[in-house]
Amino acid sequence: HLAQGLADALIYLHRALDERGLTAFDAVRPADRHQAVATTLGVSLDQLTAEERTRYKELAVFPEDVAVPLATLGILWGDSPRGTLGETLCARFLQLSLLSAADFASRSVRIHDVVRGYLVDEAGGALPDLHRALLSAFLRRLGAEQTSGEEGWPWRLLSEDEPYLWHHLAWHLGQAALGRELAA
Asked: Which residues pair with 102 in a beta bridge?
């Protein structure tokens, strides 16, 4: 009978996660909620290598409710322009239920808001550095350098059809505490 009880509990857990995601097990107090999410994610995070875990934690840099292009992740993670690092890592993250969705046809992924909140909390004071790292990665891809001179950073070199950064550049500059560059 113990085996049947365990089977029923697993069915309940799967149904609750499908219907309500990680919030199905959230406690009322924020600290308890953070611990509940950390414990739930810990099972999957423990299966990642140290490098994969570092890359996963960098997902904190993206805003809520945004489909993040795999090309953008490739830029952040230093992949070659035709590389598949972003796709490979995201397939692994999806397999471990660390992403809320991945659409490899449209080449984008989504992070559950609760998970993103956990990643942001974990990043803490290093979050502005993560935003600066993303911006710097785009600049390297452009063959440009960060400057605070008269011209500012050369965002004008960014392709007009860039699928992510044009829509979120101001937000990332603000989050990176680059107010002067944002104003420029």
From this structure: 109
User: Is the pLDDT at 49 greater than 90, yes or no?
Assistant: yes
Round to whole Å and give the CA distance between 144 and 136: 9
Tally of residues, the chain: 184
Cβ neighbours for 176, distance < 8 A, ≥ 6 positions apart: 128, 131, 132, 135
| Overall pTM > 0.85 | no
- Can you read off the two tokens belonging to residue 102? 């991945």
Cβ atoms 58, 49 nearer than 8 A: no
Could you tell me which of 17, 36, 18 has the C-alpha nearest to residue 28?
36
Q: Are 30 and 38 in contact (CB under 8 A)?
A: no
pLDDT class of 53 with cuts at 50, 70, 90: very high
- Distances 67 to 16, 36, 137 between C-alpha atoms, Å: 24, 25, 19
Give dist(CA 88, CA 184) in Å, integer: 37
> Is the alpha carbon torsion for 123, 76, 45, 39 positive or negative?
positive
Q: What per-residue confidence (pLDDT) applies to 2?
A: 46
Max distance between CA atoms of the chain, in angstroms, equals 74
pLDDT at 153 (0 to 100): 76
